[in-house]
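Researcher: Please translate sequence to structure tokens.
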Amino acid sequence: MKKHLLSLSLLSLISLNIYAEGGVSVHVLDTQSGTPGVGIKVHFDKKNTDGKWMKLTQQTTNSNGRIDSLLSPTSKLESGVYQVVFETTNFFAKKHQDTFFTDIPVEFKVTNPDQHYHIPLLLSPFGYSTYRGN
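Model: Translation complete:
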């Protein structure tokens, strides 16, 4: 029993460590069906000083509709303006649903790179909502 509790405690600490340092994560929820937004490609970009976007990474949401870290393990979040772009067209096409939005860009400013930035997307075929989560 002690061995299992220790394992669970270590897993909890490892899970918390994902969010302890600066980073960016996302979560997509299909509010029409109440299910996770599985298989959605997400671009993570940073705005350069000349105002152009530089792609940092591209990943796909997992079976829970999440990407726990958009930064590579060797990258560090810096102050600046970033965006995540959710490619939703294929997600709805696989569900045989029409959608109004093809891509959903969410632009945000990082002022404290040591904090974690979580961007949830509540999604339906003809509307969406987002906010800074934790």
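Researcher: Any highlights?
Model: The longest helix spans residues 2-20.
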